[in-house]
Amino acid sequence: MTYATDKEHPFDTDRLSAANITEDENYYYYTVTVSMAESNLSLSNVYFESTPDRLYGWSSVPEMSGRLFSAGSSIGQLGVELGTLTPTIYALWDKGITIDAYYDMDGETTEYMGSVTYYRPNNGGYANYSVSLFDFRQFYSFPDGYEQVGWRADKPVFSEGYGSDAVYSYTLDAGFDVGFNVREEFDLWVVVKKVMNVSYQAVDEQGGSLMFTSTVSGSRDVLEDSTLAENISETKLSQLQSVTCTDPTKEFMYWAVLVDGEYVRFDIENDPLLASYITSGSRIILYAVFGDKEVSV
Predict the structure, then answer these.
(1) What are phi and psi of 134, to 5 degrees?
(2) Half-sphere exposure of residue 239, counting CA atoms within 13 Å on the CB side?
(3) Domain assignment present for 297
(4) What does DSSP assign to residue 224?
(5) Using an 8 Å Cβ cutoff, are 228 and 222 in contact?
(6) What confidence category does residue 130 fall into, taking pLDDT thresholds of 50, 70 and 90?
(7) Rounded CA gap, 74 and 170, in Å?
(8) How many CB atoms neighbour CB 191 within 10 A?
(9) Based on the domain organization, do 138 and 219 belong to the same domain?
(10) What's the Rg (C-alpha) of the chain?
(11) Residue 202, burial from CB neighbour count under 10 angstroms (0-12, 13-18, 19+)
(12) How many CB atoms neighbour CB 111 within 10 A?
């Protein structure tokens, strides 16, 4: 029988007789006589010059889909199976896929975190690589005041779907419990958000300070880009929607954030809390804007 390997992965002539090795434009060939009555093992990767690539198996054609058996395993009744006394089988080399990971933090997505190279398992289906998010945990670190909230990829690794409607993100904790079967390389981002604190102040339409009728305590550990409603209780939300002030001539109009010296309306149920709203440290101030009550005639 004849073993064939491409020119990138030559046989190791310290282990195999050079007299039995021939070549053409595309392949090296190693020919050996075996008995189908005996148990014969196929060549494993130790019979080749060292490369980063993995010997995935052997095939009757130089394609992954034609794999007959894994490297180093029994060739079985190969001549009978292929219907020839002079079978030729081709080495299937797996170059692997390298997943590059980056940070998605503070609006930046280009800071490199690390990379992991994966190879097909010798005993598995040829199409898939098993990627684990746990493998990337060794790389990432971020400052105090930040929290990792998930992962995202530039291909539909974590969910089905293609095109503009595809969602490629994954929540944090569950991702460590499973592997993701993929067929090609992709880029990966760990999504990191600021942890912020929200305080509340009462003002009139000109920015003058007012006092709430009852205490409106601040909200802690609010994640950047989340809505306020996602971080507080229904009771707290109800309080904020119906705040009053001690000035009997004023009534609540809307919540706002201060942007470039101007009060901009802020929907506490639907608008995201942006890091750009931070006034100092990790603090965001939401302003309850009060206007003059209409006087009944």
Answers:
(1) -60, -30
(2) 15
(3) no
(4) T
(5) yes
(6) confident
(7) 41
(8) 19
(9) no
(10) 32
(11) buried
(12) 11
Residue 221's pLDDT is what?
93
Residue 260 is assigned to a structural domain of this protein: yes
Show the CA angle centred on residue 285, arms to residues 242 and 294, nearest 5°: 40
Q: What is the phi/psi pair of residue 30, to 5°?
A: -120, 120
Closest-CA residue to 140 (of 178, 182, 105)? 105
pLDDT exceeds 70 at position 121? yes
225 in the Ramachandran plot: left (φ > 0), alpha (ψ -120 to 50) or beta?
left
The residue among 86 and 180 whose pLDDT is bigger is 86
At residue 167, does pLDDT exceed 70?
no
Amino acid at residue number 70:
S
Q: DSSP letters of 134-186?
A: GGGTTT----TTEEEEEEEESSSSSS---GGG---EEETGGGGG--EEESS--
Chosen domain end from 62, 94, 126: 94
Q: Are 291 and 203 in contact (CB under 8 A)?
A: no
- pTM of the model as a whole: 0.75
Task: Name the one residue in this structure whose structure tokens are 């400052």.
Answer: 143
pLDDT score of 249 more than 90: yes
**Domain end marker among 57, 79, 94:** 94
Q: How confident is the model at residue 245 (pLDDT cuts 50, 70, 90)?
A: very high
Q: Give how many domains the chain has, as a whole number.
A: 3
| Predicted local distance difference test score (pLDDT) of residue 124 | 52
Is 244 part of a structural domain of the chain?
yes
Token pair 């980056």 is found at 102
Is 211:124 a contact under the CB 8 Å cutoff? no
251: containing domain: 195-292
Nearest residue to 266 (alpha-carbon basis) of 227, 224, 237, 211 = 227
